[in-house]
Amino acid sequence: MCRTCLHLPVSLRRRRARNVSTRMAAMPDQLPSSRAHGRSAAKWVLMLGALAALPAFTVDMYLPSLPDVARELGSTDTLAQLTISAMLVGGGVGQLVIGPLSDRFGRRTPLLWGLVLQVVTSILCAVATDMGVLIALRLLQGFCNAACGVAAVAVVRDRFVGAEAARILSRLMLVIGVAPMLAPTLGSAIAAHTSWRWIFAVLALLGVVLGLVVLLVMPETLPPARRRPGGARSALTGYGTLLRDRQFMALAVIPGLGMAVLMSYVVGSPFVFQEHFGLGKGQFALLFAVNGLGLVVSAQINAALVRRVAPVRLLRAGLVLQALCAVLLLVVAVTEAGGLLGLLVVLWCVLAFQGLIPANASALAMSRHGEIAGSAAAVIGAVQSGVSGLVSPLVGLLGGGAVAMSVVMLAAVLGAIVVLAAATPAFRKGGWHLAA
């Protein structure tokens, strides 16, 4: 202790010590470049990546089994598809409820309860005998799963800031982006050897495993000193703060439009490549894997570049390049130039640039409201579910072919550029200071 401090009254010295402790507790755990902290970051990426992937796998694993579900439960394809919509709606609402709870009670408690209910609803879905009951269970399942998405993003903000947060989020967005492409293949393999009901049994098992990981390995990242007290009024106040922040809301919408690009591909590609081009199920699964590789590569590139290039610059460049590729994709779809190969090459490029967009947009948005990271993550996740859920069905409404898929993907990318340009200084001189 310095000599000056020794002459201060005891009460003042104690107050200063408490203030220092509070500030230390409030500081995010930034990651130095040591090997030990490198291993720590890898641990967090693995844990949070698995949590972030669970909602996507729960939504998409039984997509190939929808006709079987409708037939076995004596229902229609339209009602079977509602089980997907119910999951997305439940996820959006759940994030808005669970986000403030995680700011008040910490990250672990809401997450553990969400995983417990995920296991219970998965088991009930596996034994459901009525389509109406299954739709209701999927709505509840989406609500419970929201805890995983909220916790994953909020924990990143608790421990990392700035470029490091963007780097970690790029790993998570990689998982979130690739999961919708790989989950249908895995679900198809399970259903081919058993029944669609076993898909929910696998989801229940995943919930148990993740619950044990959280319980035994994952520490609490939000200390009591940084928690936000209060009930519904406090939650509404936090959401009011976020909704009034124009730049935050713009950055929160962009990952949703990015997910709309991916979901438009997921929804439209079976009709385009299996019905129009006549690919078999095995070829189609390989196509999904190849396009998933594009996301893997771009996410890794983003994680490396974000250490040297501002996230807003990467976001801006990624959107512009993706828009150019989307325009070319529409031209190829309309003219059928290059046939199947031409369409695949350009589509791969559109999807590859996705790795530069959601992670950087989310990191920039979260950097603005670290004090209510749970609520901020909830808004980003809810907007993501809502926007992608509203946009992706347009592919079917427009005819379900390659042109329809390309039009919706291009519209989503252009929408993201307009939002970024209109509501943030990203395209103005000096706009790279957006993250400050």
Give keywords.
mainly alpha, 79% helix
End-to-end CA span: 33 Å
* Total strands: 0
Helix and strand composition category: mainly alpha
User: What's the pLDDT, averaged over the residues?
Assistant: 78
Helix content: over 70%
Q: Please count the helical segments.
A: 18
Portion of residues in beta strands equals under 5%
Shape: globular
Give the biggest beta sheet: none
Order of helices and strands: HHHHHHHHHHHHHHHHHH
- Regarding quaternary structure, what we see is single chain
> Could you name the ranges where pLDDT drops below 50 across 5 or more consecutive residues?
1-37
Radius of gyration: 22 Å
Question: What does this protein structure show overall?
Answer:
By secondary structure, this protein is mainly alpha-helical. Helix content is 79%, strand content 0%. The protein is built from 18 helices and no strands. Helix 3 packs antiparallel against helix 5 and helix 5 runs antiparallel to helix 16. The longest helix has 32 residues. The two termini are 33 Å apart. The N terminus is likely disordered.
Question: Layout of helices and strands, plus pairs?
Answer:
Layout lengths: L2 H4 L3 H17 L8 H26 L5 H7 L4 H29 L2 H19 L4 H29 L2 H32 L2 H21 L15 H13 L1 H31 L4 H25 L5 H25 L3 H14 L5 H9 L6 H19 L2 H4 L4 H22 L13
Task: Give a brief description.
The chain has 436 residues and is mostly helical.
